[in-house]
């Protein structure tokens, strides 16, 4: 496996697409200062997943995008593609050639690709972890890092060698397995707490469910009893309603018959009144006749009295007077008078009979009229009584209907209460069953988590075995430390000659105020090397100077000798009592 090519587009100083092809046998890239050699190394680190802007010699990650020049505008994204020859199958992927691409946009978004397919940063890290060229593997040694390796104590140097030997991969796996174990243990504790809580809740819920079932049974019995009572009341009311309706129909019939009789009586009364009106003239005639007959009787009685008086007078009169009248005349006059009296008596008797008939007929008519009036009053009173009875019956019917409506409403309310009670009982039963199922599921999850815990333990054991093997490999590599240190010294010497820092240190005898590299001026307690190196970053390679005059002189020397760039730190010589980096927390 070897790096085949590197394509840069918009990365730092590479504005246009630039492809660097690494043929077999290429060991270095040379060029004048500012030609972009360090940018190529930064591109390699960046495409393999570097996330620290300081490691790429920048203040923020967007600084890797081409910022523009006087003749060219800035770009909106940076893209680097690294092509690796995988003919030997060193990478765990079924491709003979693998191209890893990283794209970053100025808005902060980024993309990762493997052979043109979008992927995650984790996928790239997993792919490169088995090859020894991952993001944190020590295959890329930047400026200033070599001094940290050379001046490290044996423990720190061993850590570097272990990571270079590929121990980091197993350490990550161990840490991942430990995190899984911790998470699994936390999940087990959480599941156990949930199980205990649910089991505590099951008992009161079971009691509540039993109480709810008993309450449902009691409510059902109560509802049935109420329904039976209401049904009996309903039957009774319906019977009473039917009887009342029958009575109402009978009364309506009787009312109609009474009204018909009333109408008949009214018609008879009207006929009698009409007959009385018709007989009134005859009655007046009879009364007039009676009056005339009475006068005639009085005259007859007067005439008879006069005749009697005359007879007496005639019988007692002197003979001379009796002799003065003719007896025959007197006989004829007496006969005439008797005839008139007979006629008057006959007329009087006929008039008396007619009057008696008229009076009797009138009395009969008056009795009939009084009788009809009494009957009319009785009928009116009966009609009033019937109407009162009908009103009373109507009130009873309305009351019965109201009771029936109330009974129906009560039945509906009880039915709704029954449905609600059944719904509550069903919900309680379902909740009980659900909690029971959850408890059963939690028991099953306990078994599954136990199995996963055992599997994680097995993975941890395998990781520890691999870690032990890696440590043995590191121990074997320690034997080659001297040769590696010699190579590092040679490389450091070459870097110092090509670097502005090296040029300044080489001219230290001619420049005043130079204190030396910042990393060499620090005294670090054992165990703090890595945090101090991370905190210093690129500042570890800076040259410490005593004052601004010395800094200006150093800068003039770099410009005069065209020795490149170097970082300067203003400081003062160490004096007794000064706190070291290990003491400054």
Automatic annotation (TrEMBL):
Residues 512-570 form the SMC hinge domain. GO terms for molecular function: ATP binding; DNA binding. This is Chromosome segregation protein SMC. GO terms for cellular component: chromosome. Residues 167-201, 238-275 form a coiled coil. Residues 319-331 have a biased composition (Basic and acidic residues). The keyword GTP-binding does not apply.
């Amino acid at each position: 496996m070897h790096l085949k090519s590197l394509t840069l587009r918009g990365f730092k100083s590479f504005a246009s697409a630039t492809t660097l092809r690494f043929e077999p046998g290429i060991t270095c890239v040379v060029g004048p200062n500012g030609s972009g050699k360090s940018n190529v190394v930064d591109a390699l680190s960046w495409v393999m997943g570097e996330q620290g802007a300081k490691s790429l010699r920048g203040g923020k990650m967007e600084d890797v995008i081409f910022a523009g020049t006087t003749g060219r505008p800035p770009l909106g994204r940076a893209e680097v593609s690294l092509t690796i020859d995988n003919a030997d199958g060193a990478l765990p992927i079924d491709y003979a050639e693998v191209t890893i691409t990283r794209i970053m946009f100025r808005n902060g978004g980024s993309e990762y690709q493997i052979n043109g397919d979008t992927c995650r940063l984790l996928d790239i890290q997993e792919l490169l972890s088995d090859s020894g060229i991952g993001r944190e593997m020590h295959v890329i040694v930047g400026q200033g890092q070599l001094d940290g390796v050379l001046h490290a104590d044996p423990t720190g140097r061993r850590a570097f060698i272990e990571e270079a030997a590929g121990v980091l991969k197993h350490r990550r796996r161990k840490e991942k397995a430990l995190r899984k174990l911790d998470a699994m243990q936390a999940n087990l504790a959480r599941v156990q707490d949930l199980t205990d809580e649910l089991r505590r809740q099951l008992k009161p819920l079971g009691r509540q469910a039993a109480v709810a079932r008993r309450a449902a049974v009691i409510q059902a019995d109560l509802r049935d009893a109420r329904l039976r009572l209401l049904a009996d009341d309903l039957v009774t009311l319906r019977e009473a309603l039917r009887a009342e309706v029958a009575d109402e129909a009978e009364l309506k019939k009787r009312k109609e018959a009474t009204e018909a009789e009333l109408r008949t009586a009214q018609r008879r009364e009207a006929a009698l009144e009409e007959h009385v009106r018709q007989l009134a003239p005859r009655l007046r005639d009879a009364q007039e006749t009676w009056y005339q007959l009475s006068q005639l009787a009085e005259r007859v009685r007067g005439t008879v009295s006069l005749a009697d008086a005359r007879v007496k007078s005639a019988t007692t009169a002197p003979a001379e007077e009796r002799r003065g009248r003719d007896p025959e005349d007197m006989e004829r006059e007496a006969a005439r008078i008797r005839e008139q009296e007979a006629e008057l008596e006959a007329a009087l008797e006929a008039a008396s009979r007619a009057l008696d008939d008229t009076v009797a007929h009138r009395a009969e008519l008056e009795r009939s009229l009084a009788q009809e009036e009494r009957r009319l009053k009785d009928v009116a009173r009966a009609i009033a009584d019937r109407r009162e009875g009908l009103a009373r019956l109507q009130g009873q019917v309305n009351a019965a209907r109201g009771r029936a409506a109330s009974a129906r409403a009560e039945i509906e309310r009880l039915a709704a209460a029954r449905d609600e009670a059944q719904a509550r009982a069903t919900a309680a039963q379902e909740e009980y069953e659900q909690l029971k199922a959850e408890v059963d599921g939690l028991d099953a999850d306990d078994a599954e988590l136990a199995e996963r815990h055992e599997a994680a333990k097995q993975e941890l054991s395998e990781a520890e075995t691999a870690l032990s093997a890696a440590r043995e490999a590191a121990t074997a590599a320690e034997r080659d430390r001297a040769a590696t240190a010699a190579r590092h010294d040679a490389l450091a010497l070459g870097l110092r000659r090509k670097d502005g820092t090296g040029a300044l240190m080489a001219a230290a005898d001619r420049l005043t105020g130079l204190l030396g590299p910042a990393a060499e001026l620090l005294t670090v307690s054992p165990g703090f090397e890595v945090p101090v190196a991370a905190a210093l970053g690129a500042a570890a390679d800076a040259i410490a100077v005593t004052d601004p005059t010395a800094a200006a002189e150093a800068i003039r020397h770099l410009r005069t000798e065209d020795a490149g760039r170097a970082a300067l730190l203003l400081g003062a010589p160490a004096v007794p009592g000064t706190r070291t980096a290990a003491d400054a927390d």
